[in-house]
Amino acid sequence: MSATALTAWPERLYDAYVFDMDGTIYLGDHLLPGAKRLIEELRRRGIPVRFLSNNPTKDPEQYVEKLERLGLPTPVEEIANTVVTTTRWLLENKPGAVVFPIAEEPLIRAFHEAGIEMSDDPEKIDVVVASYDRTFDYRKLQIAFDAIWFHKRATLIATNPDRFCPFPGGRGEPDCASIIAAIEACTNTKCEMVVGKPDPVMAEAALGNTDVDPTRCVMVGDRIMTDIKMAVNTGMFSAMPLTGESTLEEALALPEAERPTHVLDRVDRLIPRALWDEIGWTEENDPIV
Questions:
Q1: Of the candidates 2, 88, 152, 257, which lies 20 to 30 Å from 106 by C-alpha distance?
Q2: Which of helix, strand or coil describes residue 132?
Q3: Could you tell me which residues come within 8 angstroms of residue 91 by beta carbon, excluding any fewer than 6 positions away?
Q4: pTM, whole model, 2 decimals?
């Protein structure tokens, strides 16, 4: 497949759109070009729009506040992240388990509200939950080590597989994968489950309150190994805007079956070109550029 074919605009609208947020809709505290009018046009047409994030350091209500602040008011029911999916997975797959969360306050609060018992006593822990935790320290690593390796009773799961969280200006900070690696290295064990993208559980969380078949939906995100891979895993179409982490060259290097359906320089190119003329869009008249 040539670069020209790979970056062709879609010829039609999809039945639903699932968006990653950071690097796709916004970067830091600024909307990306075309994002606002794209979301507003899809909503005007009655097409379901959903938002996903692998970030467990914010709960859905915090994303509601951020999208509102950026001019995209969104009901909490249209947002799912790994706070939601990790809590749900534990309730469904590890009922009654005692959990040690290596996590920040939003995930800990969600576990508490769901009635999940938590402990930092290695003799009582059944599940160690690794997440993107900026308070991670040697004490937490020691507790995980003792629960998994010494007492041989706990298993390891994780919220997401991301290596780093991107920041504006090309910087970033270590994400959950670094914490998983530290625990796996010292315990000689493997993570049992990673609940975030690319696992299909995230697509189910996004589309669960719609009646749309995933094979008629498009997953829109900037990361090949999470957003695009989840689309492949669930039979969804995929679109990768070149406004975040992954590049066109990386997409072209993938086997054809694993490539994004569309690679676009700006996210509003998800609206077919013929409809731009009908709506009266140009790149220059985008109010957020």
A1: 152
A2: coil
A3: 114, 116
A4: 0.90
Name residue 175's amino acid. D
| Pairing mode, strands 172-174 and 164-166 | antiparallel
The tens digit of pLDDT for each residue in 253-274 reads: 999 999 999 999 999 999 999 9
User: Which distant-in-sequence residues (6+ apart) come within 8 Å of 163 by Cβ?
Assistant: 174, 175, 177, 178
Distance CA 134, CA 143 (A): 17
What span, in angstroms and rounded, lies between the C-alpha atoms of 51 and 78?
6
Residues 6+ apart with CB under 8 A from 151: 122, 123, 125
How many C-beta atoms surround the C-beta of residue 233 within 10 A?
A: 15
**Residue 116 neighbours by CB under 8 Å, 6+ apart:** 87, 90, 91, 97, 99
192 CB-near residues (< 8 Å, 6+ apart): 155, 156, 157
- What is the DSSP code string of 219-260? EE-S-IIIIIHHHHHHT-EEEEETTSS--HHHHHTS-GGGS-
**Using CA atoms, how far apart are residues 129 and 140, in angstroms rounded to an integer?**
11
User: Quick one: pLDDT band at residue 6, thresholds 50, 70, 90?
Assistant: low
Residue that has been written with the tokens 């590890």 in this structure? 94
Of 119, 67, 62, 110, nearest to 89 by C-alpha is: 110
Q: Which amino acid is at 150?
A: F
pLDDT tens digits, 151-202: 999 999 999 999 988 777 778 899 999 999 999 999 999 999 999 999 999 9
- What is the rounded CA–CA span in Å between residue 216 and residue 145? 44
Six token digits for residue 32:
């990306």
**DSSP conformation class of 284:** T
Strand partners, 271: none
How far is residue 84 from each of residues 72, 183, 205, 280, measured CA to CA in Å? 21, 23, 8, 39
